[in-house]
Design goal:
Blueprint (H helix, E strand, L loop, with lengths): L1 H16 L4 H17 L5 H11 L5 H24 L5 H6 L1 E4 L2 H7 L5 E5 L5 H12 L3 E5 L5 H12 L4 E4 L4 H9 L3 E5 L10 E4 L2 E4 L3 H9 L3 E3 L2 E3 L5 E4 L1 E3 L7 H22 L14
Helix pairs in contact: 2-4, 3-4, 10-11
């Protein structure tokens, strides 16, 4: 019953907001952010704890300013996801500006498939949908199932609307390998908390458990990795500066995996420091 009530409210909000233009609907993000920030502070304590760990030099006022803007960012992302049900294909493509899009096709010419690695930054859902449309090649998106199966179904419908495919995290690793062996683009994010015994990499000066799955896939299959993170601009478009994370030949497999993961974390930290309000701080990233 809880899932049905949550989905009803989720779907109702989606229906109401999509009655307006996207530009007008985005303005509601500030109202929703203020309401949740002050009256229903979901995961606020987790987010402020993360911000204190990452920016110990900032005042409480500065940290709370970033947090408030993070709420706004979250609701902008949510509203834009709602709009994926009604938005025209050309408008969606125009929302994301990719620097050096030719890197995707160049990487695929290696005939090893491609790992498109991103993060919960800006709008990662729009990023996957728009870039796949722009280059005309569908993505196989690795997703973690949501607790609410009805919302999960809604999200996957949006993800697949323009030809992308969903591969659920937790399925046999062979399924993900198969996507790469079939020369497909596998898109995934790897910035959330990994298991306690996982590989630890310095992230904002703290030894942090990180996912090394993308690096392992790359090393085992030879698939190149492109890092692409959508940074929201003042006009609500997104810019993506694609970067290849290269593998050094003179390293062992384990060293290659660690080197790739370190570079991903290093690049992610640089981007977060420039626009901290656009990262998803509500996840308990440093739980262990």
């Amino acid at each position: 019953m809880q899932n049905k009530i949550e989905f009803f409210l989720f779907n109702l909000l989606s229906f109401l907001l999509t009655r307006f233009s996207l530009g007008v609907a985005r303005k509601f993000a500030t109202l929703l952010a203020a309401f949740f920030y002050f009256f229903i502070p979901l995961r606020k304590s987790v987010a402020i704890k993360n911000l204190r760990l990452v920016f110990p030099e900032y005042t409480e006022k500065k940290l709370n300013q970033i947090l408030y803007c993070s709420y706004i960012n979250f609701f902008i992302v949510l509203i834009e996801i709602f709009y994926m049900r009604v938005i025209e294909q050309e408008e969606l493509k125009s929302m994301v500006k990719i620097k050096k899009p030719e890197l995707i096709r160049e990487s695929l010419r290696k005939d090893k498939g491609l790992l498109f690695l991103s993060a919960h930054f800006g709008n990662w859902e729009i990023l996957a949908a728009s870039t796949a449309l722009t280059i005309g090649i569908p993505y196989s998106i690795i997703v973690k199932p949501l607790r609410n199966n009805l919302v999960d179904k809604f999200m996957n419908t949006m993800r697949c609307k323009w030809g992308n495919k969903v591969v659920r995290m937790g399925v046999s690793v062979k399924d993900i390998y198969r996507e790469l062996l079939n020369k497909n683009v596998v898109a995934l994010v790897a910035d959330q908390r990994a298991a306690e015994g996982s590989l630890k990499i310095p992230f904002f000066g703290r030894e942090t458990s990180v996912f090394f799955g993308p690096a392992t896939l790359s090393v085992k299959t030879g698939a190149p990795i492109l890092l692409g993170i959508a940074v929201r601009q003042n006009d609500f478009s997104y810019e993506v500066d694609l970067k290849e994370i290269k593998i050094e030949d003179n390293l062992s497999e384990d060293q290659k995996i660690e080197s790739i993961t370190k570079e991903y974390i290093r690049q992610l930290e640089l981007i977060i420091r420039k626009n901290p309000e656009q990262w998803l701080w509500f996840h308990d990233r440093w739980k262990h």
